[in-house]
Specification:
- By secondary structure, the chain is α+β, with helices and mostly antiparallel strands.
- The protein is about 35% helix and about 10% strand.
- The chain is built from 3 helices and 3 strands; from the N terminus they run E-H-H-E-E-H.
- Strands 1-3-2 form a 3-stranded antiparallel beta sheet.
Length: about 70
């Protein structure tokens, strides 16, 4: 019997995160903005010094774990 391979605990780009999770960028941002995803647990801002816009990296393992929990529990 083969078990599902867990996602890596690595921090990845937004493009990689939405591709691996199979969700839209809008859905990812909505979950971030509504507080479902937490700073430094699910995502972090890695922008360069003096950059105007944020650049995020996402923790795939933490995102997957949270998305596997039903909305009623979050």
């Amino acid at each position: 019997m083969q078990t599902a391979t867990p996602l890596s605990n690595s921090w990845v780009s937004t493009t990689a995160a939405i591709s691996k999770l199979g969700i839209s960028k809008r859905h990812l941002w909505n979950l971030k903005n509504d507080g479902t995803f937490k700073v430094n647990t699910h995502f972090r801002d890695v922008r360069r010094t003096n950059a105007m816009r944020a650049t995020y990296k996402w923790n795939l393992a933490a995102l997957e774990k949270t998305l596997n929990i039903g909305p009623e529990v979050r």
